[in-house]
Write a structure and sequence with these properties.
The structure is a single chain. With about 180 residues, the chain is α/β, with parallel strands linked by helices. It is about 40% helix and about 10% strand. The chain has one domain. A three-stranded mixed β-sheet has the order 4-3-5. A two-stranded parallel sheet has the order 1-2. The two termini are about 30 Å apart.
């Protein structure tokens, strides 16, 4: 997505495809829909622990925003992949941020994909996003929502949820840079 909110999306599968396309884009910020850090005090996803939530997760829950914890079944693989991609992109000099399209959609008043892809696409169009194609998948529309959070970050109109010593989750805000750290 560019600064004029013109979005392009495609489906990629492998880490190599994701890394190559992202590095090729020379983006100012990469907004990733995946947990990019473990909860403070959690050494690994493989070792049993009673630590399941990060500060940003607690803040989402406090705000009534539904999410899956990083330690829940399929989220484990997504978390491992997110952490790995973050490390690769940052080592290549890219600015990487964690975001969550469901939370961004809730904040912006856009229906989530579970309420219908046409409704989500329409909601993004109402946010002045251009380039939306009604044939886009839910994953592509979520990726565009993540890019919208990235643009909000670059414009200084964002919420930063969590504890910076762990990770901050960046979401679109309502005014200049609102930090909501626990």
């Amino acid at each position: 997505m560019d600064g004029e909110l013109l979005a392009k999306a495609s489906v990629l599968y492998t880490d190599r495809e994701l890394l190559d396309r992202t590095l090729e884009s020379k983006a100012d910020v990469v907004a990733i829909d995946a947990p990019l850090a473990l909860p403070r005090g959690r050494e690994s996803l493989d070792l049993k622990s009673n630590i399941h939530f990060r500060a940003c997760d607690h803040e989402l829950r406090r705000r009534g925003i539904k999410f899956f914890p990083v330690t829940l079944g399929p989220m484990r693989k997504l978390t491992e992949r997110g952490i790995r991609l973050r490390a690769s992109l940052e080592s290549a000099g890219m600015k990487v941020m964690e975001t969550y399209p469901g939370a961004a959609q809730d904040i912006l008043g856009i229906p989530r994909k579970g309420r219908g892809l046409n409704r989500l696409a329409e909601g993004l169009c109402l946010q002045h996003v251009r380039g939306i194609d009604r044939r886009m998948s839910g994953d592509e529309l979520d990726a565009i929502t993540c890019a919208l959070a990235g643009i909000a970050y670059l414009k200084g109109d964002f919420l930063a949820l969590g504890d910076p010593s762990e990770i901050l989750m960046i979401l679109p805000g309502a005014g200049p840079a609102i930090r909501s750290e626990l």
